[in-house]
Amino acid sequence: MKTKLLATLLLFACISYAQTDTRLYDIINSVSADRIKSDVTTLVNFGTRHTLSDTVSRTTGIGAARRWIKSEFDRISSNCGNCLEVFYQKNFVKKDDNARIVKDVEIVNVVAIQRGTKYPNRFIIMSGDIDSRVSDPNNYTSTSPGANDNASGMAGTIEASRVLSKYTFESSIIYVGLSGEEQGLYGGKGLAAHAKESGWDIVGILNNDMIGNITGVDGVVSNRDFRIFSEPVPPTETEQERRARRFYGGEVDGISRQLARYVYKTTKTYMPEMNPMLIYRLDRFGRGGHHRPFNDAGFAGIRIMEAHENYTQQHQDIRTENGIAYGDVLEHVDFEYAKKLTAVNAINLASIAWAPPSPKTVEIGGIVEPSAKLRWSKVDGAKSYKIYWRDTTSPTWDNYRYVGDVDEHTLEGIVIDNYFFGVAAIGADGHESPVVFPNKVFR
């Protein structure tokens, strides 16, 4: 009888934690396609936003664009009682630093921080790119609308800040327009270095680069598919960590991959009509986006983008050849789709910012035993913990158990050799941290 009662109580406890937070549905419904369209249109109308373009004009060039972005963040902050700390973050790049830097240039990012109430130095970041380009990466005078690449990601970031500024979070959220992406990821390098110097505890960056196209060059049209690119393990791992992976696993379980799985799970829970595609690669084949400098600095980072690209609309001079219209112009952006991907970002930013931090340490044991043993460092603010496990070939965390406010648990009858395991911290309202793959072993 006692066993049955205990099982019933545990079931009710699990149900209460598993319930969704209705605020996230409100956030989804608050994202506006019309506002995103208006912001993309404004960015396109600056003519060019090339990194090396005019910085003095009030109407043309990257200087006018970044001043407008800052004014939007300032306006949003004013409407929420100055809840955003808005500033320029700058770094200087000299001529010939690479082949695309043909003159000295100041790389200027526009940053807006929504400070958390409990963990103000813990950050989750959403980024879009300010700059644009045409066929010649060094042509900084020709018209370069960059409507999808990447006014869509920048407008989505502004819109997410407008929606989420209505809420209060335990952790801090950063909304940022990064510059210099097309010239060598300079904006991301500068902000990642600033984060290290400032001692920021970064959970991860959601890099949004092209979130507005639904018609692929392959003929596929879809307003539901999107890709999440993530690196398997941090490039900063030590040789000791690399050797340990040979024996304990973790080849596809780095911090960026856990962030990608988090976005996948949150999206499938709150936006089940969407099809998030987990791509096991840093970025598109042989290419790189603005999350990479954060990965290089040891932070988690992923790229969220459309699934079906059209290369006739990327990095192209505006022209018509053989009946094909080339150019990244406004009419190719699907604003309802951009709205959906903006909502994907917003609910994940909110969920992470409402959740407690992840456990710093997760240890695993149970070698040559019919069980898996886990123990972890407890987290201030966590009300419970959740153990996940999955088949070693599965891309997602498919099994879990709530274990209460404890710091260790044994999964009886689950053989350690057959699965991968992880632990997440759960807050009072059910929001959970990203999963932590075991980083220590005990016997």
Characterization of the model:
By secondary structure, this protein is an alpha/beta fold. It has 2 domains: 22-354, Zn peptidases (Aminopeptidase, 3-Layer(aba) Sandwich), CATH 3.40.630.10; 359-441, Immunoglobulins (Immunoglobulin-like, Sandwich). It is 32% helix and 25% strand. The protein is built from 11 helices and 17 strands. The strands form 4 sheets. The protein has an 8-stranded mixed β-sheet with strand order 1-2-4-3-5-8-6-7, sandwiched between helices. A 4-stranded mixed β-sheet has the order 15-12-11-17, with no helix packed on it. Helix 5 links the parallel strand 3 and strand 4. The radius of gyration is 22 Å and the shape is globular. The two termini are 35 Å apart. The model is unreliable at 1-18 (pLDDT under 50). GO terms for molecular function: metalloexopeptidase activity. Pfam families: Peptidase_M28. It comes from Flagellimonas marinaquae. Residues 1-18 form the signal peptide.
List the helices and strands and how they pair.
Layout: H1 2-18, H2 22-30, H3 33-44, H4 62-79, E1 84-93, E2 105-114, E3 119-129, H5 147-164, E4 171-178, H6 181-184, H7 186-198, E5 201-208, E6 225-230, H8 239-248, H9 255-270, E7 275-279, H10 292-296, E8 301-306, E9 319-321, E10 324-326, H11 335-354, E11 362-365, E12 371-376, E13 384-391, E14 399-404, E15 408-412, E16 419-426, E17 440-441
Parallel strand pairs: 3-4, 3-5, 5-8, 6-7, 11-17
Antiparallel strand pairs: 1-2, 2-4, 6-8, 9-10, 11-12, 12-15, 13-14, 13-16
Helix pairs in contact: 2-11, 3-5, 3-11, 5-11, 9-11
Main location: secreted
Signal peptide: 1-18
Subcellular location: Secreted
